[in-house]
From TrEMBL:
Enzyme class label: isomerase
Organism: Pseudoalteromonas arctica
Protein name: Pseudouridine synthase
InterPro entries for this protein: PsdUridine_s_RsuA/RluB/E/F_cat (IPR042092), PsdUridine_synth_cat_dom_sf (IPR020103), PsdUridine_synth_RsuA/RluA (IPR006145), PsdUridine_synth_RsuA/RluB/E/F (IPR000748), PsdUridine_synth_RsuA/RluB_CS (IPR018496), RsuA_PseudoU_synthase (IPR050343), S4_RNA-bd (IPR002942), S4_RNA-bd_sf (IPR036986)
NCBIfam families: pseudouridine synthase
CDD domains given in the database record: S4
Catalytic activity: uridine(2604) in 23S rRNA = pseudouridine(2604) in 23S rRNA; uridine(35) in tRNA(Tyr) = pseudouridine(35) in tRNA(Tyr)
Residue intervals of the RNA-binding S4 domain: 5-69
SMART domains: S4
Assigned EC number: 5.4.99.-
Length: 230
């Protein structure tokens, strides 16, 4: 019986990254199988010598999940050579990575895990898991701002999906997104004539940072069912 599986799936199961990110690593040429450059069509098991950036990957990792209250100034890219990188603030020696990045100038809830399949379940467009943000802009919101944002505006050569937008103060609104384009909220607000001066992610799916009592730059080990109950 052949128990070999696709290489990207194996890397995800080993807790290195999500399956999608594993495919990118293969494209970048940093993955090898049995001392040769990897191919997307490779099928492997624990008997194969699989390496990512020259580090051996083997076996299914024990799944871990953390909530992290990210402060402004930390970059979610896991770059060992960048002193501002999240990699210098991780809570465990087990490899974990963020689900749904926040840009360096944003703050709030991040989920860190080594569960590639669960990562896919949270961020893949087919599953549409909501993320709620509180956003402060540089001037008072006009009467049609929320409706305009909610209906969708051009970002990265596409119209954003319909979303829920609610004014909560003169210069502040909440927005619930089910997609995650690069710097999406900042670009949406800019299109409508506003500059974001504070962006705070409060909630991912069922996990709300406000209920965790978690100070900035702190972690809490959680159960994945706290994140996604349905």
């Amino acid at each position: 019986m052949n128990n070999k599986i696709r290489l990207a799936k194996y890397i995800a199961h080993a807790g290195v990254c999500s399956r999608k990110q594993a495919s990118r690593l293969i494209d970048e040429g940093v993955v090898s199988v049995n001392n040769r450059p990897a191919n997307h069509i490779d099928h492997v098991d624990d008997n194969d010598d699989i390496r990512v950036n020259n580090t051996r990957v083997q076996g299914k990792a024990t799944r871990v999940y953390y909530a992290y209250h990210k402060p402004i100034g930390i970059d979610c890219k896991l770059n060992q050579h960048d002193p501002s990188s999240l990699i210098h603030h991780l809570p465990t020696n087990t490899r974990v990575y963020p689900i749904g990045r926040l840009d360096k100038d944003s703050r709030g809830l991040l989920i860190l895990t080594n569960d590639g399949e669960f990562c896919n379940q949270l961020i893949h467009p087919d599953f549409h898991q909501p993320k709620r943000y509180l956003v402060t802009v540089d001037k008072p919101l006009d009467d049609d701002f929320c409706q305009k944002m909610a209906q969708g505006v051009p970002v990265n050569k596409q119209i954003t999906l319909p979303c829920t937008v609610e004014k909560i103060a003169q210069c502040q609104f909440s927005i619930i997104l089910k997609q995650g384009l690069n710097r999406q909220i900042r670009k949406m607000a800019h299109y409508c004539g506003y500059k974001v001066i504070d962006l705070y992610r409060e909630q991912i799916s069922d996990l709300n940072l406000a209920t965790l009592n978690l100070p900035e730059n702190s972690y809490l080990k959680i159960n994945k069912f706290d994140i996604l109950k349905n």
